[in-house]
Amino acid sequence: MATTYSAVGQRAKRLDSPPKLTGAEQFTGDLKISGLLHARIVGSTYAHARIVSVDKEAALALPGVAAVLTADDLPVRKDENGQPVAQLLAGDEALHVGHAVALVLATSDAVALDATELVAVEYEPLDVVSDLDEAIKPDAPLVSSARSGAFDEEAAMHNADAATGGGEDESLPPNVSSSVNFERGDVAAGFAAADEIVELTLTSLTVHQGYIEPQVALVIPERSGRLTVHTSTQGAFHGRGKVANTLGLPIEDVNIIPMPV
Q1: pLDDT digits (tens, 9 = 90+) for 64-75
Q2: Distance CA 10, CA 254 (A)
Q3: Could you tell me if 47 and 96 are in contact, meaning their C-beta atoms sit under 8 angstroms apart?
Q4: Which CATH superfamily includes the segment(s) 26-143?
Q5: Dihedral over Cα of 115, 116, 118, 119: its sign
């Protein structure tokens, strides 16, 4: 006699489906608070370029614009060497098309968007490497002359348990920030015992998640100095730690509220 289960093998309704299907769900972008400023990014038009200057004057003259910020304007914590612990804006070098060079803050999203067109950025184009195999060659042009843009800590979140970092004496090409080695059993013995050995290279297209909601963060500073951050994330604790470390705040002063994704 076949066993009938109440849950296994049965159709189940998603608890989050009704509000999303009916349009009743509130995403981060739907939140409204008094005195809200809207931010829009001024993105690089070059795949790789040195940023010579950023002229904010025309954008700041637009009614409704509160500020135009570049990397030097951000309250990012400095390390023991006086360097920012995170590079939120491009600073002196743009590393890809769309790399955030400046941030416009305005009283409405429309004004902020218009103001981004008035920010004049002067660029000095640099060599571009767009092929992975070419980029990892020892003599390849540097993808970042300042050796910035690598996020080893975040990448480490996705490493398998079997992965081990490269040894300290491992020589890496200039554009390779780190290496990960996987080991399972005796590879040489396995090849020696194999009836056939097949060598091939597999490639795949770039893949990224698709979201229903716009990716938005809304930050509410409180009088006590604490921050409440509403954002579409599944990594609330990771985000809390990154915000606290970047701004030099005690972690208990940062409250992350995960919003629907």
Answers
A1: 999 999 999 999
A2: 41
A3: yes
A4: Aldehyde oxidase/xanthine dehydrogenase, a/b hammerhead (3.90.1170.50)
A5: positive
